[in-house]
């Protein structure tokens, strides 16, 4: 009997995406096979598209914001509890080493494992109608959540969600969200729903109405004056979520931090953030990076979103238009999602 087939969008060489027909894989030890229903497009997909990430090898199927249905379960303790028909999400963390000498893994901090293998970077990801994932990389979706909503929450959503919940401040504290794109529009919602006073920071006034509709209480046009002074006029930011890929813009926010304030860097720019020791010392300010999270973190981010009404603003493309979707994402559209059920 002929093996059932799937379609995958494959990076065969830098910046070339080709559709291929492949056999649907069988799950190996600790693996599940997922019928992909939706895949979110993240700016980090450019690492796959350009083959610009350490350890990457082509050909490769990109995509690390995945939501779908388990259709086959392999043996092993990492698949325990999963069954066919379960709705799951898969994010950045594909596998970690789980070695007893790994400080990150033994501490349960799997996302910082130095031997992490990233979904859609080191392992084939979600630009496909089916994919394989290790059982412990799957996050259970809340009942009734739409796949096109769940997929982006497994990277963009969990990134801002974790950054906030791992840096708890008193209710009503001022949280600034720099950039109102794929990360930022979720950061505003999560921060607002967590009880913070939220200020959105973006260039120009075009996104003022959008920011306020998402739950922002204030809006700062970064082109209209000194952003740090504007933040200090509001009392200073306890947290700044820096979501835009712009290190120079992040630099300008540091003096807007309150005492004990933290600039959390989420936008992966290659340029340096400039800060002097005195800027940090005098009021115990800090600059911190934050990665996305584990499957359990994604599960929590999805559950919080459903409970509190956090919604992803999506631009849906059918799977056959994956390259057009990628180009739209890189041009700034948020949040671009491939609906694998559309032809």
TrEMBL record:
Entry GO CC: cytoplasm
Keyword terms, alphabetized = Metal-binding, NAD, Oxidoreductase, Zinc
The molecular function GO annotations come to:
alcohol dehydrogenase (NAD+) activity; metal ion binding
Q: Which SMART domains match?
A: PKS_ER
Which InterPro entries does the UniProt record give?
A: ADH-like_C (IPR013149), ADH-like_N (IPR013154), ER (IPR020843), GroES-like_sf (IPR011032), NAD(P)-bd_dom_sf (IPR036291)
* Annotated ranges, domain Enoyl reductase (ER): 12-338
Q: What is this protein called?
A: Alcohol dehydrogenase
Organism per entry: Tribonema minus
């Amino acid at each position: 009997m002929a093996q059932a087939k799937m379609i995958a969008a494959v990076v065969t060489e830098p910046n070339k995406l080709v559709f291929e027909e492949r056999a649907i894989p069988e799950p190996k030890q600790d693996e599940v096979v997922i019928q992909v229903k939706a895949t979110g497009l993240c700016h980090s997909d450019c690492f796959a598209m350009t083959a610009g990430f350490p350890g990457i090898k082509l050909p490769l199927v990109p995509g690390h914001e995945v939501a779908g249905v388990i259709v086959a379960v392999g043996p092993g303790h990492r698949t325990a509890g999963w069954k066919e028909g379960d709705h799951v999400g898969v994010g950045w963390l594909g596998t970690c080493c789980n070695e007893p000498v790994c400080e990150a893994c033994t501490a349960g901090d799997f996302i910082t494992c130095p031997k992490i293998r990233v979904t859609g970077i080191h392992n084939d990801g979600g630009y496909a109608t089916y994919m394989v994932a290790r059982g412990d990389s799957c996050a259970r979706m809340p009942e009734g959540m739409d796949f096109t909503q769940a997929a982006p929450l497994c990277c963009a959503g969990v990134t801002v969600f974790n950054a906030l919940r791992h840096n708890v401040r008193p209710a009503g504290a001022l949280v600034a969200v720099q950039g109102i794109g794929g990360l930022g529009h979720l950061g505003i919602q999560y921060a607002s729903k967590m009880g913070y006073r939220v200020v959105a920071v973006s260039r120009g006034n075009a996104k003022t109405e959008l920011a306020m509709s998402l739950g922002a209480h204030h809006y700062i046009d970064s082109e209209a004056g000194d952003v740090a002074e504007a933040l200090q006029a509001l009392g200073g930011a306890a947290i700044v979520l820096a979501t835009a890929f712009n290190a120079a813009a992040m630099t300008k926010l540091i003096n807007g931090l309150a005492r004990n304030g933290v600039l959390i860097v989420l936008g992966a720019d290659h340029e340096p953030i400039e800060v002097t020791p005195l800027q940090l010392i005098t009021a115990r300010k800090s600059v911190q990076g934050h990665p996305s999270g584990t499957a359990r973190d994604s599960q929590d981010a999805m559950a919080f979103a459903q409970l509190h009404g956090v919604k992803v603003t999506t631009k849906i493309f059918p799977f056959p238009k994956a390259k057009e979707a990628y180009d739209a994402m890189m041009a700034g559209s948020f949040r671009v999602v491939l609906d694998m059920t559309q032809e």
